[in-house]
Amino acid sequence: MTIEDFERIAKFAEVDSEAFTLEFINGRLRDKVLPDGDHATIQEWLARRCMTERPGWGLHGRLLGLKVGKDREGRARPDGTLAPAGNFAGQGEWAAPEGVLMTAEITAYDVGSNRRDREERPSVYASTGIPLHLIIDRAARTVTVFSEPDLNLGGYRAECTVKFGRKLVLPDPVAIELDTEELKQYVR
Questions:
Q1: How many CB atoms lie within 10 A of CB 160?
Q2: CB atoms within 10 A of CB 48
Q3: Of 167, 166, 171, 169, which is closest to residue 156 (Cα–Cα)?
Q4: Alpha-carbon gap, residue 13 to 53, rounded angstroms
Q5: I want to staple 99 with a disulfide (CB 3.0 to 4.6 A). Which of 2, 38, 87, 178 is the partner?
Q6: Chain centroid, CA 33 distance in Å
Q7: Could you read off the pLDDT of 83-134 as tens digits, one per residue?
């Protein structure tokens, strides 16, 4: 499938679906279920934390798609994309990743989504050159930050995981501390 074919299919599917959006990662068509209330609340929590610490930044939700992969032939909709305010002005539905400081994923409870969130997404975001990737894992009740992307290997060289309730320092270029205590309220 070409990227042009994917974009036509994705646009058609989004008009017709209230249950999912489509992505194109590693040459494969992927569906991404829409968030539940706890997922949306965690996304809101992360946005508040980031924008309180860095008011000149914005955390964009999954309505903003990114061109991903080393050759930018993939299309992903992160649960959160942290970038300076105005970074995506003038761009279309699928924005260039330049200027992105961090992507974030909040896991769903289905097996397929969890595997993609834990394995495929960190790899594709690293190969894109995005400095940090954050996973808020509701099933494991952990928060993991990946850093030091290796463009050649398509992965991050460093990662740090904490259990909900602990503090996690996000490295540069974000350089903020997340107190994850509140996240305990938003898991099953």
A1: 13
A2: 12
A3: 171
A4: 37
A5: 87
A6: 14
A7: 999 999 999 889 999 999 999 999 887 666 666 777 788 999 999 999 999 9
Q: In angstroms, rounded to a whole number, what is the distance separating the alpha carbons of residues 109 and 111? A: 7
Residue 73 CA to its chain's centroid (Å): 17
Cis before 131 (ω within 30): no
**Cα maximum dimension of the chain:** 44
Q: What is the pTM of this model?
A: 0.85
Residues 6+ apart with CB under 8 A from 167: 177, 178, 179, 180
Residue bearing tokens 């105005």: 86
Q: Do residues 180 and 166 lie in contact, with contact meaning Cβ atoms separated by under 8 Å?
A: yes
pLDDT of res. 188:
78
Domains of the chain: 36-186 (3.90.1570.10)
- Specify the pairing of strand 94-95 against strand 102-106: unpaired
Q: Please give the distance of CA 91 from its chain centroid, rounded to a whole number.
A: 18
Label residue 5 exposed, middle or buried (CB < 10 Å: 0-12, 13-18, 19+): exposed
Residues in the chain, total: 188
Evaluate the CA torsion angle 143, 112, 59, 19 in order and state its sign.
negative
Neighbours of 49 (CB within 10 A): 18
Alpha-carbon gap, residue 108 to 152, rounded angstroms:
29
